[in-house]
TrEMBL record:
Keywords: Signal. Residues 26-51, 163-206 are annotated as: Disordered. This is Nuclear transport factor 2 family protein. Residues 163-175 have a biased composition (Low complexity). Residues 1-24 form the signal peptide.
Length: 206
């Protein structure tokens, strides 16, 4: 009956191998389920979203990009406003870039009173007068990765906001603020502190 013992031993080895393989596959699937959904090579995608429903991509403060915004009346005096961004540890991706998150890369969204005006791939923009009628408005810039997620630190989007007051009499540009120093308030433009994003790490915008 030696052949019977040999057959049973071989069968036992096969069962052991199949069980071990199944266990390994199960462990791998569990690890992917725990880490594959919310984690990525660049930061961690959170459940939290911005006003557009885009998920925040959390990164360490030391690795996070920063942005500041400066808004001034157009010198031509036609009611338009010049927007200039100051960036640190961030570069704009070219149009048509792959839809994946790359550290310190992406684009910016520009909002007026929480309404999306344009998507930027350069640090300057001319805000037409029709977008800022007479009154006070909040102009916000927010940084995004190329996959559409929002760069964030401590659960807050990387963004900066400036308040401006448009009037028919606005003909001269206010003093220029130094992005590396305290924000400057001037006629027609007010600074707001808060959020995450200013290159001086104080969250100020001018």
């Amino acid at each position: 009956m030696s052949w019977t013992r040999t057959f049973l031993a071989a069968l036992g080895v096969c069962v052991l191998l199949l069980t071990g393989t199944s266990g390994c596959d199960s462990d791998a699937a569990r690890e992917e389920g725990e880490n594959g959904v919310s984690s990525s090579p660049v930061g961690k995608v959170l459940d939290d979203t911005d006003g557009e429903g885009r998920h925040l991509r959390e990164v360490d403060e030391d690795d996070a990009p920063e942005v500041g915004i400066e808004v001034q009346p157009d010198p031509e005096g036609d009611g338009a406003w010049d927007v200039r961004l100051t960036l640190r540890d961030f570069r704009f991706s070219a149009a048509g870039a792959q839809t994946r998150a790359v550290a310190g890369r992406g684009l910016a969204h520009l909002y007026v009173d929480d309404r999306l005006v344009t998507r930027l791939r350069n640090p300057e923009y001319r805000l037409a007068s029709g977008l800022v009628p007479r009154g006070t408005h909040q102009v916000t810039v927010r940084l995004y990765a190329d996959d559409g997620t929002v760069w964030a630190v401590d659960g807050d989007p990387v963004e900066s906001t400036a308040a401006l007051t448009a009037s028919a009499a606005e003909t001269t540009a206010p003093p220029t603020a130094d992005p590396s120093g305290p924000a400057v308030s001037a006629p027609g433009v007010r600074s707001r502190t808060g959020g995450r994003g200013s290159p001086d790490r104080a969250g100020k915008a001018s």
